[in-house]
Design brief:
With about 290 residues, the chain is of the alpha+beta class. The chain has two domains: about 120 residues, no CATH class; about 120 residues, Immunoglobulins (Immunoglobulin-like), CATH 2.60.40. About 55% of the residues lie in helices and about 25% in strands. The strands form three sheets. Strands 3, 4, 7, 9 and 10 form a five-stranded antiparallel beta sheet that branches. The longest helix has about 70 residues. The chain is rod-shaped. The N and C termini lie far apart (about 160 Å). Keywords: Coiled coil, Membrane, Transmembrane, Transmembrane helix. This is Chromosome segregation protein SMC.
Length: about 290
């Protein structure tokens, strides 16, 4: 083979090598550009996922303000918390971690469907509530109109009943309290009192119902303590101690009543108060002053 052919062959080989090297460089640069482009797309996709997670969490927060249902609010709160936890996980994941990105993308799709179901449920509830409010307003208007007459009649009836009740209450008049000494005489000093004799009259009242009555008498000392043996009666939804009790038969006519209290304790000078009760009412009061 002559020298000229060798040169030609060598030139061809060099050209082929250069072309191959150039292709390899071009391919490498092309691959690098594609990788960089893919990384940018992955980062963009990750940011979009983060934004969507954040929007979902915000939607759950807004939906909770639109309803008045504790059970549903608790469910929304749970889903919002789960969304925020997944968002926190996504922020820690690298965009190049394809497996984790894919997992969180699937979670996002699941959350999207759950959110849609809650949006539909709340929308349905709101429509139903709106319809119920409208119907309720109509019913209220009808009810107000229908019950106005009944209310007026009831008021008149209650007023009449109150007047009858007040008129039928017993009344203790002429209340007196005498302190007796050990000889049964009127004691001059409170320290000599061995027995209190309380007398009064249940006034005539033809509107009061006839029958047996329990009369309760409370004697209160100057220090507001009640002379009592521990017995109680009900007055204005509470139990009060009494000093003496007497059962009488009342027929609507004036009925005298006398009760006694044996003194077994020290009595100080001052004002003593006597209160009489019957049928759950305070029917008479009187005060007596012992200055000695």
């Amino acid at each position: 083979m002559d020298k000229k052919k060798i040169i030609i062959i060598a030139s061809v080989v060099v050209l082929l090598l250069c072309a191959g090297l150039g292709y390899m460089v071009y391919s490498y640069m092309q691959e690098s550009a594609e990788k960089e482009e893919m990384l940018k797309l992955a980062e963009m996709d990750k940011r979009e996922m983060e934004n969507e997670y954040a929007r979902f969490a915000q939607q759950y927060s807004e939906m909770k303000t639109q309803i008045n249902n504790d059970s549903l609010i608790a469910q929304l709160d749970k889903e919002q918390q789960r969304t925020e936890e997944l968002l926190a996980e996504l922020k820690k994941v690298k965009a190049t971690d394809a497996a984790e990105i894919m997992r969180l993308k699937k979670e996002l799709a699941t959350l999207r469907n759950i959110l849609k179901s809650y949006v539909h449920e709340i929308d349905s509830l709101n429509r139903v509530n709106e319809q119920l409010r409208s119907e309720n307003q109509q019913v209220k208007a009808q009810y107000t109109q229908a019950t106005q007459t009944i209310t007026n009649l009831s008021t008149e009836k209650e007023t009449l009943s109150e007047k009858v009740a007040i008129a039928s209450q017993l009344d203790a008049t002429g209340i007196s309290m005498v302190g007796q000494n050990k000889r049964g005489k009127k004691a001059r000093k409170v320290k000599d009192v061995k027995k209190f004799v309380i007398s009064f009259v249940i006034a005539r009242n033809i509107t009061a119902q006839a029958g047996n009555r329990s009369i309760y008498v409370r004697i209160t000392k100057p220090n507001n303590e009640v002379l009592t043996s521990g017995g109680t009666f009900v007055y204005e939804n509470r139990n009060l101690e009494y000093s003496a009790k007497k059962d009488i038969e009342y027929n609507g006519e004036a009925t005298p009543v006398t009760v006694y209290w044996d003194v077994n304790e020290f009595l100080s000078k001052g004002t003593y108060r006597v209160s009489v009760f019957a049928d759950g009412h305070n029917i008479g009061n009187a005060s007596f002053n012992y200055e000695k």
